[in-house]
Design goal:
- It is built from eleven helices and twelve strands.
- With 317 residues, it is of the alpha/beta class.
- The protein has a domain of 219 residues: NADP-dependent oxidoreductase domain (TIM Barrel, Alpha-Beta Barrel).
- The strands form three sheets. An eight-stranded parallel beta sheet has the order 3-4-5-6-9-10-11-12. The chain has a two-stranded antiparallel ribbon with strand order 1-2.
- It is globular.
- Bound molecules: adenosine-2'-5'-diphosphate.
């Protein structure tokens, strides 16, 4: 498996297992199977509601000597209701207990959006806190304190623009190691990628296959299907691969990490194998031509008339 260098020399496996939308009843087997296949990077989050099952799978895999803790890269994410400095550590400690781990490799601020403590999803204006009330820099200092205590080796962000990363780089003691954002051929994030390359921040791509198993309430009717794009299909045929594998190979060949979600053993294997597919510069250029700044995950669930946040403000665009 290819790896990406963090600024301090630690290495992040380029392709990891996504667990968003993996139900508690199916994620245990998915993680066990992924580890048998060779996955060493697992992407989790408290809000996914499945960290206990993932923790059990990790513990059982280690007990069966299929993998050692030091070989794994485990990421989790701080939910929006725990952005106050003193709330970060308890949230991380809960996640560690659920995952049955002593430390995380990476802990991310999940969204640049804050809620009152205890709110999973906001229903009214009162459920939100603004970034003036809880600045991201305050949350960041809570994250830094967790690094000082060796509860986590790296900290970073998710869904953050270059502008927000820059704020943290300027105000923080510890640099963000990773920013995790939606990224695929229809949303290539060129500006953010150039910024992250320059600042030695690893970019991780979520929803690399378009997350077709998302809640239908948040899916556009005319959502494009990336597996049907002609250029992708032709490249798949040329490599005796599947369209999904080409999407994943593009992310890895571009020097980003990528976390496809699957709970299906065959697709777990196909996705893992995709990291070894080499695309030449002509093929990469063909895919680069597909960019149209299309978001599947628009952030609209955190914006609207009951929210102090706007979609433009979340993405800084
Ligand atoms: P499943 O879990 O049944 O494999 P994303 O990673 O963009 O969120 O996409 C996840 C969705 O893509 C899930 O519906 C998942 O279904 C499906 N999926 C995962 N791997 C593949 C693949 N290799 N080919 C087609 N669909 C896939």
């Amino acid at each position: 498996m290819r790896t990406l260098n963090c600024a301090n020399g630690d290495r992040l496996p380029a392709l990891g297992l996504g667990t968003w939308k993996s139900d508690p009843g199916e994620v245990y087997q998915a993680v066990r199977e992924a580890i048998r296949i060779g996955y060493r990077h697992i992407d989790c989050a408290a809000i996914y509601g499945n960290e206990k099952e993932i923790g059990q799978a990790l513990a059982d895999a280690m007990r069966a000597s299929e993998v050692q803790r030091s070989e794994l890269w485990i990421t989790s994410k701080l939910w929006n209701d725990s952005h106050k400095k003193e709330q970060v550590r308890p949230a991380l400690v809960n996640t560690l207990a659920d995952l049955q781990l002593d430390y995380l490799d990476l802990y991310l601020i999940h969204w640049p959006v804050a809620f009152r403590n205890g709110v999973s999803f906001p229903h009214s204006r009162d459920d939100f806190l603004t970034l003036d009330e809880v600045p991201l820099t305050e949350t960041w200092s809570g994250m830094e304190a967790c690094v000082d205590e060796h509860l986590v080796r790296h900290i970073g962000t998710s869904n953050c623009s270059a502008r927000k990363l820059q704020l943290l780089l300027e105000a923080g003691r510890i640099r963000p190691s990773v920013d995790q954002v939606e990224m695929h051929p229809l949303l290539q994030q060129g500006k953010l990628k150039r910024y992250c390359d320059r600042e030695h921040v690893v970019l991780t791509a979520y929803s690399p296959l378009g997350s077709r198993d998302r809640n239908p309430a948040f899916r556009a009717k005319d959502e494009p299907d990336m597996l049907e794009i002609e250029v992708i299909r032709k490249l798949a045929a040329a490599h005796a691969a599947t369209p999904a594998q080409i999407l994943l190979a593009w992310a890895v060949n571009r020097g980003t990490s990528v976390i496809p979600k699957s709970v299906n053993p065959q697709r777990l294997q196909l996705n893992f194998d995709a990291a070894a597919i080499e695309l030449n510069s002509t093929e990469m250029n063909l895919i680069d031509g597909l960019d149209r700044h299309y978001r599947y995950v628009t952030g609209s669930f955190f914006a609207g008339k009951n929210s102090p946040y706007t979609i433009g403000g979340i993405w800084d665009e």
